[in-house]
Amino acid sequence: MKLQIMAARWQGEIDVPSSKSMGHRHLIAAALSRDTSYIKGITPSDDIEATIEVLRSLGVDIQRQAEVRPHRYTYLVQGGMQSYSHPIVCDARESASTLRLLLPLAIYSDNKVLFTGRGRLTQRSLAPYQALCMKQGIYWQQSEHTFPLTVQGHWTAGTMALRGDISSQFFSGLLFVLPLLKESSTVISTTPLESAGYVNLTCACLREHGVAIQAKENAVYFIRGGQTYRAGTYHVEGDYSQAAFWLAAGVLRGTLTCSGLNRNSLQGDRQILALLQQMGGHVGWEGDKLTARQSNLQGIDIDVSSCPDLFPVLAAVGTQATGVTRLYHAARLRYKESDRLHAMATALQTLGATVTERADQLCIVGPTPLRGGTVSGSRDHRIVMALAILAPFCQHALQIEDAQAVVKSYPCFWQDIQKVGGILTQEETI
User: Fold this and answer.
1) What is the three-state SS of the chain?
2) Residue ranges at the known binding site for 3-phosphoshikimate
3) CATH topology of domain 3-17+238-426
4) Where, by residue number, does phosphoenolpyruvate bind (predicted)?
C-alpha cells in the first residue's frame, strides 16, 4: 500500500500505544504461572498477536476483552502449557521477539516443536541458541533459511555462556525458563551485551510476577531454581519507542503531547527524551504527560547501540538539525526488519537530504529542504513511521510505499497521524 501524506505542522495529543516489549514479557510470564492473570492495556499488533498464537499453540488459554480506551484490550491468560503426543507448529510470523523469547519455552514445554516464520525473520540469527542447544544435547534441526526449525529436548541447569553481541533477546528468553528448573543456573555473556536495557526490562517484569533474577557485573545473571510465577493483574505501560515518533514530530514542527507513558520507565528508548533535549529540543513533562514543542535543533553524535529502534526517527530528525548528526555503532541495524542503515540513507537521499552511509553509521548534514515524492518504506514499520513525520518539510506531497508495514507494531498509526493534522490519500494497493 502506498499512502500520500500532506501536513503543514503537527498539533495535538496522542495516547501512546502500549509497550510492545513489555506486552510480550507480561503475556509470557502470565503463561508460566499456575492460575489466571489479567494483562491490561495492551495495544494489539502483528508482533503481539504472534506471541499470543505461539503461546496458544503450546496449550496456553488466552482470551481478549475490549477496554474503554480505544485500541486497548485486556488479555485473560490461564497459565500452564500442555504436553502433546504429536509435533506442534508455532508460527512466529515476522517477530524476532516472539521467536527468541519463546524458543526456550517451547523446549521446556516437553514437546517436539516446529517453528515457522517469514520475511526478514528468515535471516535473523539464532546462533547463540543453536550453540547452547548443541552443548545441552537438545535436538535442533533447521533449513538453510532458518525455517522450518524443529526443537525438542530438556534444559539442564548450570552455567550457560553465550554471545551477547547479536541480541539481548537470547538472554531474556533463557531468564523466563531457568527459574522453573529445579537447580540454579548462571547465564554469562561472552561478549559485550548489546541492548542490555531490554534484559533489565525482563528482570523487572519477572520481579512483578514473583520471580527474582540476580544481575551481576559484566552481564552475568544468577537464576535461583525452583521458583514459581505469580498470577495477578498487570498493566502494560506506554511505549517510548512509539512515543519517539511524536516527540520528534513535535520538536521538528508543531506541538505534540504524549500520554500513557511511565515517567520512571526502564525502557531503553526513554533515551529519546534526553537525546532530543541534547539536540536543543523543547521536550518535558507537564504533569503526567510529555510534551514536545517546535525547536531549533543542532546535530550531535549519538551512539545507537543501546537504542537501535530509535535509529530511523533520529535519522529523520537529523535532516532538519543544523550541522552534522552522526548515528554510530549501528551495524547491527542491517539485520532488522530491513537493512535500516541502507533503507534510511536511500529514502532520505531520495527526498533530497544530505546523507553519507558508512559500514556502521549514518552522517546527516542539515537542515535541508526536502523534495517529497515517492520513497520506499522497505517493508519496515519503523522506517515508514520515521519518514511520515517529515511530511511538513516536503515541497511536494510525500508518498510512502509499504505503508501497511505499521501493523507490525502500531496498527493505528495512520489514524493517529490524521488526528494530529496529517491528510492521507491512499494511492494504490499492492
Assistant:
1) CEEEEECCCEEEEEECCECHHHHHHHHHHHHCECCEEEEEEECCCHHHHHHHHHHHHCCCEEEEEECCCCCCEEEEEECCCCCCCCCEEEECCCCHHHHHHHHHHHHHCCCCEEEECCHHHHHCCCHHHHHHHHHHCCEEEECCCCCCEEEECCCCCCEEEECCCCCCHHHHHHHHHHHHCCCCEEEEECCCCCCHHHHHHHHHHHHHCCCCEEEECCCEEEECCCCCECCCEEECCECHHHHHHHHHHHHHHEEEEEECCCCCCCCHHHHHHHHHHHCCCEEEEECCEEEEECCCCECCEEECCCCHHHHHHHHHHHCCCEEEEEEECCHHHHHCCCCHHHHHHHHHHHHCCEEEEECCEEEEEECCCECCEEEECCCCHHHHHHHHCCHHHECCCEEEECHHHHHHCCCCHHHHHHHCCCEEEEEECC
2) 20-21, 25, 167-169, 195, 309, 336
3) UDP-n-acetylglucosamine1-carboxyvinyl-transferase; Chain (3.65.10)
4) 20, 124, 169, 340, 382, 408
